[in-house]
Design a protein that fits this description.
The structure holds 2 protein chains of 2 kinds. Chain A is mostly beta strands. Helices cover 0% and strands 60% of the residues of chain A. In chain A, the strands form 2 sheets. In chain A, strands 2, 4, 5, 9, 10 and 11 form a 6-stranded mixed beta sheet that branches. Chain A has a 5-stranded antiparallel beta sheet with strand order 1-3-8-7-6, with no helix packed on it. The termini of chain A are far apart. By secondary structure, chain B is mainly β. Chain B is 0% helix and 49% strand. Chain B is built from no helices and 11 strands. In chain B, a hairpin with a 2-residue loop joins strand 5 and strand 6. The radius of gyration of chain B is 13 Å and the shape is globular. Classes of the chains: A mainly beta, B mainly beta. Chains A and B meet through strand 4, strand 5, strand 9 and strand 10 of A and strand 5 and strand 10 of B.
Chain lengths: 111, 114
């Protein structure tokens, strides 16, 4: 079957660095996306990895290792506004390129 | 401004009633999606449409229906057959069918059965 695993909750301190891991099991992996969702809000796109390696966008970076079926989102210089849920999602060729979603990681940031 | 709009933001339904959630986009996107999100959970796909007048069932289509008569619009009806409809419903659209085109989401409709 298809599944994605990510921690349910991560706690970090303002100004620190945090890594949110995602492991996946899909039959037709095409790429890994990350979305941010604040409480009660809509998910917003953060990053996409189709090839192995690190993609950097400002304070956020995303990494993919296709051989390990693993990726992570790295958030640097954490700010209170980064408190949100973070979802990894796999684009699956065998499902008409639909997104298969993880259950989300709630990031709690303490001052 | 281009975007995707869902209405209403909050909706209350009596048991046994059908209700329709609106989703409109002016991004000229071909693909549109409906997801359901329960507390502490990821997004589960209800229905999706990749072209006008065509749509496909997602993982949890039972008790829901959709139509796609116009490119801009993809309304979702929650029927009385849906036994546990209280949830947060999200509509999304994408410009392409493959690759890394991101999904854009509406602000969601929170449906509560009273």
């Amino acid at each position: 079957g298809q599944s994605l695993e990510q921690p349910s909750e991560v706690t970090a301190v303002e100004g620190a660095i945090v890594q949110i891991n995602c492991t996946y099991q899909t039959s037709g992996f095409y790429g890994l996306s990350w979305y941010q969702q604040h409480d009660g809000g809509a998910p917003t796109f953060l990053s996409y990895n189709a090839l192995d390696g690190l993609e950097e966008t400002g304070r956020f970076s995303s990494f993919l290792s296709r051989s390990d079926s693993y990726g992570y989102l790295l958030l640097q210089e954490l700010q209170m506004k980064d408190s949100a849920s973070y979802f990894c999602a796999v684009r699956d060729m065998d499902s008409n390129y639909q997104l298969i979603w993880g259950a989300g990681t709630k990031l709690i940031i303490k001052p | 401004d281009g975007g995707i709009t869902q209405s209403p933001k909050y909706l209350f339904r009596k048991e046994g009633q059908n209700v329709t959630l609106s989703c409109e986009q002016n991004l000229n996107h071909d693909a549109m999606y409906w997801y359901r999100q329960d507390p502490g959970q990821g997004l589960r796909l209800i229905y999706y449409s990749q072209i006008v007048n065509d749509f496909q069932k997602g993982d949890i289509a039972e008790g829901y229906s959709v139509s796609r008569e116009k490119k801009e619009s993809f309304p979702l009806t929650v029927t009385s057959a849906q036994k546990n409809p209280t949830a947060f419903y999200l509509c999304a659209s994408r410009g392409g069918q493959g690759g890394n085109t991101e999904a854009f989401f509406g602000q969601g409709t929170r449906l509560t059965v009273v």
